Amino acid sequence: MPTPPHPPDLGRSASSSSPPECAERAGASPLLEVRGLRKAFPVRGGWLGRARTAVRAVDGVSFAVEAGSTLGLVGESGCGKSTTARLVLRLVEPDDGRVVFDGRDVTALGGGALRALRREMQIVFQDPYSSLNPQMAVRDLIGFNLRVHGEGGAAVDATVDAVLEDVGLARGYAVRYPHELSGGQRQRVNLARALVVRPRLLVADEPVSALDKSVQAQVLNLFVDLRARYGLTTLFISHDLNVVEYLSDSVAVMYLGQIVEWGRAEAVYAQPLHPYTQALMAAAPDPDRPRGQRPPPLAGDLPSPLDPPSGCRFRTRCPHAMPLCAEQPPALAPQAPAHTVACHLYEPSAISYQQSAAKTQASERSRGDTSTHAVAPPTASRKLTADR
Amino acid sequence: MDPPDTWQLAVGANAAAGALPWPGVEADEAPPTSYWGRFGRRFLEDRLAVAAALVLLAMAAAALLAPWLAPASATDGDVAQRLAPLGTAGHVLGTDEQGRDMLTRLLHGARLTLLAGLVPVLAAGLLGGALGMVAGYCRGVVGGAIMRVMDVFYAFPAILLAIGLAAALGPGLRNAIIALAVVFIPPVVRVAETATRRVVVQEFVEAARASGATPYQILRYHVAGNVAGPVFVYASTLFGVSIVFAAGLSFLGLGVTPPTPEWGLMLASLKDAIYTNPVVAILPGAAIFVASVAFNLLSDGVRDAFDVRL
To answer: In terms of pTM, does the model score above 0.80?
Structure first.
């Protein structure tokens, strides 16, 4: 739905480098807080395998997950969602930034303390095939998670049997091997492995993406059921907007290693602000929408994270791109209660910048109409052709 | 049942009740419980491997019981009866170039030969497997250091390296076995390292890390089982090579010293008789052949039985 940008809030200017204000309900303290997380993977090559360049997989990601709630992290393949998940659990070492779990800085913990903390933060992986050791029976796979924390004996088997029942697998499955299970059953085992230690935070990295649609529904229902029963705080990663809407209290949209929009799920779904979010929502299949009324899909491909565009990373595909977008990266700033967005279209400073820039550069620039784009809300200008 | 409606209901109801997603798949009769029970059953199904195991068991028993089974002395020959053919009275398998009873010498020779075949391979499999897993898991400086040291060993032809090491350590079967183990370690390390690198990128290893497992626990419980198969298969092919190398070292005076019976040494000293009495001359070689084929078949069977997916 088209809406004008929110009234300017000068107190929270886009230039501030501090983490964005939490879009969650005020007052509640987050169980997980991520600030300015960065990770670049060096690309080796050239003389003696020196790092020539780096893939900036996650580039300054900040968000928070309130205790007991679910944050849905959405975005295209390759936008850094999975890396973010691994950074949060410190399965991958961040280059920069902090992960604070229940007041403890996960990024500063050493070996033993980190291993102890892992009991409270678990993950369910995407691939039901490679995420289970083919050599281990289900009982040992799940029990391993308890044994590494020093538990042993018959108590482990009893706990494992109880969790198996919780995830909807009969006791007989305890002695089965992964190759004897279907994809859905394997994800149930993965879920059981994560839940057996009674974690507080569960990171689900596309847990149903590899499953059939019919099995997806079963596993998602199970997920919702268990989330309530185990009192989990969840970071749910998916590229499926419908799944995220179904599960999440709040939603963060990622594009090329950065979060472009973050807010309460109802708000984001009812009124997506960032042009990328709008494009994503428009691209989601909707059986109620007549054929002719489908908006045009996003043009172009995801730019390479080896060499991301300057300024706003979405500008190369954005229908509302303006010169400022190439110069300055937009910061995540609140636009509505519990709704933040990183886009120059909603920045008052950007408008004044555009006007002054238009004055000085009008003679050299052939793109004269961009300043009108800047003041117009994105949906209103959709009819105009993007001048790129 | 008719698919659509019932199915939908079943999904919701079962998810809520935490029951099985599809009725009827009530985790049927429990399969044999213990891991080793399954292992034994799978192994026994492989007739060839069972036969090979029996052959090797017979050889091992013959080696152990040689002093009681042997009809004659292993070192004293009858010069009048040199190179007697098969079936000679008193010498079922004939005699060698010094008139010693072949059956006796083969039985006694089995002891050192099986030792020289098995011990270096076992040592190289264990040490090389462990080093390879560490190198494959650690990568970086530690892994690089291990692999480059192995490359240095690779630069020498295997038999030359074995001769050099055995010569440096001094003659004797013990030193020959040590030399062979060292020679076999680098290729085993390489096999283990490759297998480890393939395993550690899988998500179950990451899941183990996410569980809070230490690197040792990950290697011990998640990597070792998946690396053992390739290492086992590769190491078992070294068994025959090891016997032949040990024979070569003995031939050069670096392993077993002459009067002592050992198959490789017997083969070497009988080679001149290949034109006069080929059947007798070939006997030690045939024994080596049977032992190494049986060993390879056995290791194939064991590998398959270890693999829970088969």
So the answer is: no
